Amino acid sequence: MTDYPAQLGLYIDGEWISGGGRDTHRLLNPATGEGQADLPLATIADLDRALAAAERGFAEWRKVAPEARAVILNRAAALIRERAEHIARVATMEQGKPFAEAKGEVLASAGLIEFHAAEGQRVYGRVLMRPPGMRSMVLHQPVGPVAAFCAWNFPALNVVRKVAPAIAAGCSIILKPSEETPGSAVEVMRCFQDAGLPGNIAQIVFGVPDQISRHLLASPVTKKLSFTGSVPVGKALMKLAADSVMRMTMELGGHSPVLVFDDCDLQKTLDTLVAHKFRNAGQVCVSPTRFHVQQGIYDRFVEGFAERTKKMSIGNGLDAASNMGPMANSRRPDAIAAMVEDARSIGARVLAGGGPGDGGGFFYQPTVIADVPLEAKAMNDEPFGPVALIRPFATDEDAVAEANRLPYGLAAYCFTENGRRQNMLSETVEAGMIAINQVRLTWPDAPFGGVKESGFGSEDGPEGVAAHMITKAVHIA
Ligand code: NAD
Fold this sequence. Notes:
By secondary structure, the chain is α/β, with parallel strands linked by helices. 38% of the residues lie in helices and 20% in strands. It folds into two domains: 10-252 and 454-476, 3-Layer(aba) Sandwich (Aldehyde Dehydrogenase, Chain A, domain 1); 256-443, Aldehyde Dehydrogenase, Chain A, domain 2, CATH 3.40.309.10.
């Protein structure tokens, strides 16, 4: 086929599996639209084998000392660093993002594993004050085998976000990464395998998503659901998991507001926001999306945003000149085109982009739309693409009301030099993460997660490990 550099397979009980008459899924290169590999899909028997292995694995792994788990995690991180260029190439070829972005993602994944290696050794219980002869303790124990499902937009980091905290906490995990970006997951998993992680602790399967989630979540072996993806699929999985009152972590969609006030450093704000908006072609759950700009700087903001956007260079992510790649799959450009046309038809002004890109791949131009009416579809449903939607506002109250208008609550961005206003926004904007005068939200030691319909239960930070532990109170006379 092509020079796609990953050998795809299911990883079950320490064995790489493919062939055997299993159905396959044709993997496409989003920069060309061409097939580049065939991914084997798990059968029900494969899933049952993975469940049995996860149950056995958990029984052993929970007894392993946290510092011994950390040795393996740190080795896996070192291997990921060593193989970063290779894994990044796989990620770019299957997901489309520019190689430099992919490499940054892979290195961030290694950093996250190292954080969890240490954090797994910092799980503290409590001994409570009691009269002599009485002792009360609070213990934290690993919850058990985890079933995890994640999206394609960060094909390496999303995998690590699921696997690292689970195994640091002493759990086993069966992960179904996206069928559209399997190679990055496979290559990350090989690093865990080569680092000495027993094959029944972290396993990966691919298949028909609905069939896999129904089967894994119906099993009494599974004790926790962890999902990264859209709100509708998250809700469906929560219903399945409710039958066994399973623990859950839900990282769902977002529609991040950006509140830009008259007193911001305008040029710096524009430089920062344009680069961040088009990272991963806007296919980021925390992507800045609804730009609410105060009236005094509105015209200059719109003009500066469009001007910078027109200078972006779109192309194959393996080409060093590209600073934005294609969208990840053939559904995305059509979905974005429909949203742009809808906004245009009700009076919005398209100032940059607004159409498909050149070439055979899944390209859509970086697009800037001003004066977008609130009723436009894109102002209400998550676009998940390279589209900046800009509207003016008058007062602080208007800005906060608009930020909080939607049922999403993942990330929000604010640009203002006024400290009192920064505090007010930190208090009143409904989001799991707020960035003020900069755009970075992902740090290994900080919780990552949303509120409202964007989900609950954070990943990363001490919260990531804690989400894989149960709490037990013990009272002894
Ligand atoms: P999606 O929900 O359709 O798919 C996400 C993942 O879930 C894919 O791997 C898919 O195979 C899998 N999936 C789909 N249906 C499933 C089912 N019934 N059972 C089990 N797994 C299933 O979402 P998408 O459109 O492919 O991805 C983009 C969405 O993911 C956006 O809404 C985005 O905001 C969200 N996302 C959220 C975060 C976060 O951390 N909050 C991170 C990345 C992406």
